[in-house]
Design brief:
heterodimer, A: alpha/beta, Rossmann fold, six-stranded mixed sheet, four-stranded antiparallel sheet, globular, B: mainly alpha, MetI-like fold, 0% strand, binds adenosine-5'-triphosphate, binds magnesium ion
Chain lengths: 268, 273
């Protein structure tokens, strides 16, 4: 691996209509990192992901990938799983998974027919089995449970083999049992595909369990007269040696985190 | 229990729904009965059997002059105009609506114009249409287009803009071109809403159809009722009105059924009227 960071964020700030949401973000992320992001609600975590995706442009500073400026619009090299609306409601499970192959193969109709379609369908069968949706391949997303939908969304985002995967609270709405399964699936895929992952979560335990690096976003400067004046920034940047650490390593760090993420203390 | 929580059973709902219809028919029959007691030759409120006779004459007895079955000929001609007009309106609504809703530059250039255009009362354009296109079929069809397309374009554009941005971005990350997003994401997502737009557009479409036929035509449902008006032939007019209403109702239901069949994913998400 070269020493060139996969992603460099240089003094980035985001300002919405005079409200500073994020400021002074500076970090280098190595290729293959699984970077978890925690922070209080509405401190700008999703905004950060949107900037990494080129859905939003930083108001100041710049973001580089492999030393190059981000393209001005979303591209297939960065996959995304949103918390909601991540899969296409008008397509069945298997059609959702076949879609990117159809985009590649059919520039005009965006659709495959006949034997080519059958081949594309076969091609997603393995994925379907892997994510446990083989039985549900003909169903529409609204007919799936939350966990099934998120598995589909993750599988769909991985089809283009993105070098960077962005996950915005992907397991937020899932119950603990399913959540653990999903975490396992994610770790497996991450190891297999050697991606760099950014994952926003509300759950500190999840952040430590999965992450090789934990970023904590918070506002450190407050001006009571002008609350819009200062934005959140990265207050803790904790590299962990290995993924899969089951518990939070030290009580002091947890205490600090609890304080910084006001009101978002995990229940688990 | 509070009124808002009291739900009628299926049977009750049916009878509740039928009651106003029955009441209207009974009220009519009574009024007609007493009017004809006064004056047996009364033309204003013909009896139900008289109307049935007139209607079956229109439907099953060939016209003395032309030999046509008038009701079916009128129905066919009117529906043909309606279909042509709505067909053009749908094509316009889809193409312009998607452009306006999906491509910001197209929106900037077209949206204000369409919004202004849709404020012109269509009937005021009718003389202009007659002058330009003559009194033939084209001007009637154009009136329907002018009367329905602007609103349908705006409603399609609105539905396109309501597609969650996440889905569009997702398609971009899956490598879709703008065209591919239009045909694989935008179009299928708005088709059910297009059907709703058609169902709503049919209401003014019928108005413009009947108006155009009344003013300049030699066939069609609107032509017929305005023709027989000269003889105060209420026994023809009233059944024709009921017939037109029935046609409109059937069209509406057919569209709803088509939508349920073709877009099960849409109707899974919640009930619509
Ligand atoms: N398009 C926008 N225009 C104006 N303000 C915005 C916009 N998007 C986000 N914001 C504001 O930026 C702040 C951060 O929003 P963001 O969605 O990034 O928060 P978050 O950290 O993801 O919160 P949560 O944990 O609740 O998802 C919020 O105060 C929000 O109101
Ligand atoms: Mg968020």
């Amino acid at each position: 691996m070269s020493t060139q960071p996969k992603v460099s964020v240089r003094n980035v700030a985001k300002i919405y209509d005079g409200t500073v949401v994020l400021e002074r973000l500076d970090l280098d992320i190595a290729a293959g990192a699984l970077c978890t992001i925690v922070g209080a609600s509405s401190c700008g975590k999703s905004t950060f992901l949107r900037m990494l995706l080129s859905q939003e442009v930083p108001s100041r500073g710049e973001i580089l990938i492999d030393g190059e400026k981000l393209p001005p619009e979303p591209t297939p090299d960065r996959g995304i799983v949103f918390q909601r609306y991540s899969v296409f409601p008008h397509l069945t499970v298997e059609e959702n998974l076949m879609l990117s192959a159809e985009f590649d193969a059919a520039p005009l109709t965006g659709r495959l027919f006949g034997s080519k379609r059958a081949a594309a369908r076969d091609a997603v069968t393995e994925t379907l089995e892997r994510i446990g949706l083989a039985q549900a391949r003909k169903r529409y997303p609204t007919q799936l449970s939350g966990g099934m939908q998120q598995r589909l969304a993750i599988a769909q985002a991985l089809l283009k083999k993105p070098k960077i995967l962005l996950l915005d609270e992907p397991f937020g709405a899932l119950d603990p049992g399913i959540r653990a399964d999903m975490q396992e699936l994610l770790i497996e895929l991450w190891k297999e595909l050697s991606m760099t992952i950014f994952m926003v979560t509300h759950d500190i335990h999840e952040a430590f369990k999965l992450g090789t690096r934990v970023l904590v976003f918070d506002k450190i400067r407050h001006d009571p007269d002008a609350p819009d004046r200062w934005g959140a920034t990265i207050t803790y940047d904790l590299p962990l040696d290995r993924a899969g650490v089951q518990t939070i390593p030290d009580a002091g760090a947890l205490f600090a985190l609890k304080n910084t993420t006001r009101g978002d203390v995990p229940h688990a | 229990m509070r009124l808002i929580n009291r739900k009628p059973s299926r049977a009750t709902a049916f009878f509740l729904g039928m009651a106003p219809f029955v009441a209207a028919i009974v009220a009519y029959a009574v009024a007609s009965h007493y009017r004809r007691l006064d004056n047996p030759a009364d033309k204003l409120l013909p009896s139900l059997p008289d109307m049935a006779a007139a209607f079956s004459r229109m439907a099953f007895t060939p016209d003395r002059r032309s030999g046509d079955l008038l009701l079916w000929m009128d129905t066919f001609d009117s529906l043909e105009r309606l279909a042509a007009g709505m067909g053009v309106a749908v094509v316009l609504a889809l193409s312009l609506g998607i452009l306006i809703g999906f491509i910001p530059n197209a929106r900037s250039s077209l949206a204000p114009f369409i919004a202004t255009f849709s404020l012109i009362p269509p009937i005021t354009i009718l003389p202009i249409l007659f002058i330009i296109f003559g009194l033939g079929e084209l001007s009637k069809i154009m009136l329907i287009v002018v009367g329905t397309a602007p609103v349908m374009i705006r409603s399609v554009a609105q539905s396109v803009m309501e597609i969650p941005r996440e889905l569009i971005i997702k398609a971009e990350t899956l490598g879709a071109s703008v065209w591919q997003m239009m045909v694989r994401v935008v179009l299928p997502q708005i088709l059910p809403k297009l059907i709703t737009a058609i169902r709503l557009g049919l209401v003014p479409a019928w108005i413009f159809l009947i108006s155009a036929e009344a003013i300049a035509s030699t066939s069609g449902l609107g032509y017929r009722i305005f023709l027989v008006r000269r003889y105060l032939a209420m026994d023809v007019i009233l059944p024709y009105v009921v017939w037109i209403t029935l046609l409109a109702f059937i069209l509406d239901r057919l569209l709803l059924m088509a939508s349920r069949r073709a877009f099960p994913w849409h109707h899974l998400q919640g009930e619509s009227l």
